[in-house]
Amino acid sequence: MNVNWFKNPDNVVYADENEFVDNFAFETGIENLRQEIEDFRNNPTREGKMLKGKKRVSVKLLIPNLMFDEKIDMGDNVWIYMGDVMESYCVYRPWKE
């Protein structure tokens, strides 16, 4: 895992938290994904946090700007990483009007 992979737009999906998380939680079998993201956002770690789903899926929650020495676009958000062969999801909260 390196920062250049996360900088490649072909590897990233920018996902509105309100529209994405519940469906992704269902698809992966991670029932408490929304709470896990919120907890990780409030208490992030440099190495990230692994989550296991019920459907033989594991994901890693991470904040790229904490993990890497180089900053990236939207790297302060929580990202869901599923390996280099899958897209990563940058989970953002939409602006409040």
Task: Identify the notable features of this structure and list them briefly.
single chain, alpha+beta, five-stranded mixed sheet, 4 helices
Describe this structure in words.
With 97 residues, this protein is an alpha+beta fold. The protein has one domain (3-92). The chain has helices spanning 3-7, 17-28, 33-42, 64-67, and strands at 12-16, 49-52, 58-62, 78-81, 88-92. A 5-stranded mixed β-sheet has the order 1-5-4-3-2. Strand 4 and strand 5 (88-92) form a beta hairpin. It is globular, with a radius of gyration of 13 Å. It starts with a helix and ends in a 5-residue tail after the last strand. The model has no long low-confidence stretch (mean pLDDT 92).
Q: What is the topology?
A:
Blueprint: H1 3-7, E1 12-16, H2 17-28, H3 33-42, E2 49-52, E3 58-62, H4 64-67, E4 78-81, E5 88-92
Largest sheet features: 5 strands, mixed
Order of helices and strands: HEHHEEHEE
Overall mean confidence score, pLDDT: 92
Q: What general form does the structure show?
A: globular
How many DSSP helices? 4
Rounded to the nearest angstrom, the radius of gyration is 13 Å
Strand order of the largest sheet: 1-5-4-3-2
As a percent range, the share of helical residues equals 25-40%
State the domain count.
Answer: 1
List the uncertain runs.
none
Distance between the termini: 36 Å
Strand content: 15-25%
Q: Could you give a short description of this structure?
A:
The chain has helices at residues 3-7, 17-28, 33-42, 64-67, and strands at 12-16, 49-52, 58-62, 78-81, 88-92.
